[in-house]
Amino acid sequence: MKRIVSILIMVIAITAAATAQNGRTKFATDMYQAKHEMIIEELGLTQTQQKQFMPLYEQMEREIYQVNRNARALAAEVEKKKNPSDRDYEVAASALSNTRMREGEIEAKYFEKFSKILSKKQLFLLKQAEGKFTREMLKKRKK
């Protein structure tokens, strides 16, 4: 459940990033900025680290968003078809099932890059900050 919520928040944050390129809404801009500010604060990033880390982090978010977007697009295509074939279902189900694996691969790739910029403690705190952001967003949503 936590993974799904994390993915949902990440998708929202990435959507905010994508929206930023096409004229951000105030909400999307605020959420995108808040997440990045929290990460910077929680990790205690120096200016140099911020300049090196944040573009990589944003790139990772975009890649994860794209994986999820592609899987959702395949699922939407199947839902729209009047008589989807077993192959249609198979392709869509496989894409949906493989999203977590692909996300993990993307995170692993970037973890290696992040480890050249961040300390071991900051790498740990990154995951803590992402979880904290998710929890805070859920609390605000319930209100």
Topology:
Blueprint: H1 2-21, H2 26-43, H3 47-80, H4 86-114, H5 120-142
Helix pairs in contact: 1-2, 1-3, 1-5, 2-5, 3-4
Write a structural description:
This protein is mainly alpha-helical and 143 residues long. The chain has one domain (2-142). It has five helices and no strands. Helix 1 packs across helix 3. The mean pLDDT is 84.
What is the distance, rounded to the nearest whole angstrom, between the alpha carbons of the first and last residues? 20 Å
Structural class: mainly alpha
Element-level helix/strand string: HHHHH
Cα gyration radius (Å): 17 Å
Strand fraction: under 5%
How many separate structural domains? 1
Give the helix level as a range of percent: over 70%
**Shape, per Cα inertia axes:** globular
The tally of helices reads 5
Poorly predicted ranges (pLDDT <50, ≥5 residues)? Answer: none
What is the number of strand segments? 0
Major sheet: none
Instruction: Average the pLDDT over all residues and give the rounded result.
Output: 84
